[in-house]
């Protein structure tokens, strides 16, 4: 006879639901990471992956929001900006970034969104002992992830941020927006020149697809440079492999995700038990 488990069943009629929406979806890690944390916190809750097609985005989101036992949604590529009109309010970080990656149902049934990508990366960098305050960083890619990193670095007191995007207008728009919010940080819109930087961040998707190389044709990198790639491609992206071959310290994409788990749990109103 087997001993009865002390754990509640994984799912029953009273289970509260959370979701992650994206396209594609099979690569996401939040369902296992956050469901395990919900259970560790003693909550009868599950986070499920929902594959949302771009052509049916609005009706899919409205359907999810209409479910009375669905309390929160994680939002991933490519919907972090597109979700904004579906929200009733966006918290200050999400407003500065212009995109959100988590949304929750309030007690009055309205929906609030915020962005935790930048805070997540900062949290992991602090744990690893990497400083941002007073340093110069180049950010490649000024979409959702790049904007989140730029806001977080500027908020943390970076001295200067060089923004680069193959669609130059995106880098220029971001610089213009952040200049007014962070007057103590110097913003430049230039190709990334790692010899003038302390930190290099790839926030473009380059390195995700098989056979892709570096996001920019760099020469040898100074070993004092800290190189961060937000692309999640274990074990190493081409940029991180190259950086390690130059003797640089590197930070992988999962640092951004791992660092925001506590923040997202708090946003959903779920704390650790005991
Ligand atoms: P996005 O489409 O919003 O933005 C990507 C930007 O990169 C675009 O502005 C595009 O023009 C630019 N770009 C593309 N190729 C470039 C190049 N060679 N040089 C310069 N700019 C280039 O996408 P996103 O949501 O910002 O995501 C970007 C990457 O970050 C994706 O791979 C995504 O999976 C990853 N990401 C990881 C995490 C994490 O937790 N680690 C979180 C968010 C996003």
Features:
single chain, 274 residues, alpha/beta, Rossmann fold, 6-stranded mixed β-sheet, 6-stranded parallel β-sheet, 9 helices, 31% helix, binds nicotinamide-adenine-dinucleotide
What does this structure look like?
Helices cover about 30% and strands about 20% of the residues. It folds into 2 domains: about 5-115 and about 260-265, 3-Layer(aba) Sandwich (Rossmann fold), CATH 3.40.50.10860; about 120-255, NAD(P)-binding Rossmann-like Domain (Rossmann fold, 3-Layer(aba) Sandwich). The protein has 9 helices and 12 strands. A hairpin with a 5-residue loop joins strand 5 (about 100-105) and strand 6. It is an alpha/beta fold. The mean pLDDT is about 95. The protein has helices at about 30-40, 55-65, 90-95, 115-130, 145-155, 170-180, 240-245, 255-260, 260-265; strands at about 15-20, 45-50, 70-75, 90, 100-105, 110-115, 135-140, 160-165, 185-190, 200, 225-230, 250. The structure holds nicotinamide-adenine-dinucleotide. Nicotinamide-adenine-dinucleotide (NAD) binds near residues 170 and 204.
